[in-house]
Amino acid sequence: MNTKRKEILAVYEQGPEAVVTLVTTLYDIIAEQQRIIELQAARITELEERVKKLEEQLKKNSRNSSKPPSTDVFINEKPKTKSRRKKSGKKPGGQKDHPGTTLRMVDVPDEVIIHKVHKCSNCERSLEDIEVKDHEKRQVFDIPPIKLQVTEHRAEIKSCPHCGCKNKATFSEKVKQPTQYGLRLASLAVYLHDYQLLPYERSCELLADVCGCEISPATLARAEKTCFEKLEDFEQQIKNFLIESPVINCDETGMRIEGKRQWLHVASTNKMTCYYPHQKRGSDAMNAMGILPNFNGTVVHDFWKSYYKYDCDHSICNAHLLRELTSVSENDNQLWSKAMNILLIDVKKSVDQIRGMSGCMKPERIKEFEDWYGQIIHIGIEENPQLQAKSKKRGRTKQTTAKNLLDRFIGYKNDILRFMHDLKVPFENNLAERDVRMMKVQQKISGTFRSMQGALIFSRVRSYISTVKKNQIPVMDAIRNAIAGMPFIPTIV
């Protein structure tokens, strides 16, 4: 301290100019340090925001976002499942008076094997000539040996005794080649590839091991292409039915085609399914699919903005919203998200009870829920005040995740609560998501499609199989009828 005092006095003794020079130098040093502090403060703010984003990403899991359970990483202990289902109080297993599915004896077996009694187990005398008093029955259910059945078609050839003309009978249209596979084998091959999702080579391997036929992947592909061509009218009819339906569920998911990420779109009801692959995810694909441009009912979706380009009623998947509300509650600890979560579940319970009685919700009950909705929105606005723009950059001011979700609940109230006003509208979009899920399984098993045509063939055949399953029609019979040119077509309800 004394040294600094002496240095300052020495400068002072040198005169005013020396003092001015010293002060100016100090000002420059302070200004430079202030600039460094401001830069460091800005960098700290930037890093804090980055850390917050990373923490939010780490906190997202399958319970509070749309991420699948397979992506739940960085968790030392698996969190307890927070199921919304309440305990029923019933014991595990089959309930009283449940019919069950026990294997039961048939009245007329295909084969009977008699186990004879030759001698008495007590005195060992012969019982060969003694009349049988009764039988104890046991039945074994099994499949017979599987082998190809060859049917030979012979066309008669006759010569006319009057003119000598040589005449030959005409073969059936189904018999076109000297040797060929029949409809049952072709339908089984299509079933293995397009329903059980086995790749071509594994399908051929299974047929060789089980049926003993050396079928090639090219033969399987031809059978699939034939089925695809025969289902052209079916696909158009399904699209027409979906257009006339009061409610449809729509979704889209990534699909690898030609080594690139493209998109699979689905539109469905509980009786019909239509898949359509396309390079785009948005309205170009939806227009090409040909359903939404002519649809006037209610489309249920997960808030992908392209759906709002169509002039129809919309319903947002509330299962997605519940997960997002859970994320805001856990990560930001906001009251409005917890209250909104409770409200949506309560509304769903009321709607389910009313739907079971085939009625409609009373106007006063609807008003009660809507008033509750408005009160929660008011709490959310207080917890998420409008941010002021800090810069003159063009575009919208960046907002928090909680504020973005709140804005969705403010702007799309009718679409969120549409299931409360129209009981035909489901609470969530699970139907479309279930239809999409098996297509994702196909990608995991068989990988990418080598061409768009291959994706189109698979999607149309899979649309048919999904529709058949929803209508509880035997799949193998339905595929065989489709290849024969008589596909199943549901009736619109």
Automatic annotation (TrEMBL):
Listed InterPro entries: DUF6444 (IPR045618), Transposase-related (IPR052344), Transposase_IS66_central (IPR004291), Znf_dom_IS66 (IPR024474)
Lineage: superkingdom: Archaea
Ranges of residues in domain DUF6444: 34-102
Domain Transposase IS66 central residues, every copy: 180-455
Biased composition (Basic residues): 81-90
Domain Transposase IS66 zinc-finger binding: 119-164
Region annotation (Disordered) ranges: 57-104
Protein name, as recorded: Transposase
Source species: Methanococcoides burtonii (strain DSM 6242 / NBRC 107633 / OCM 468 / ACE-M)
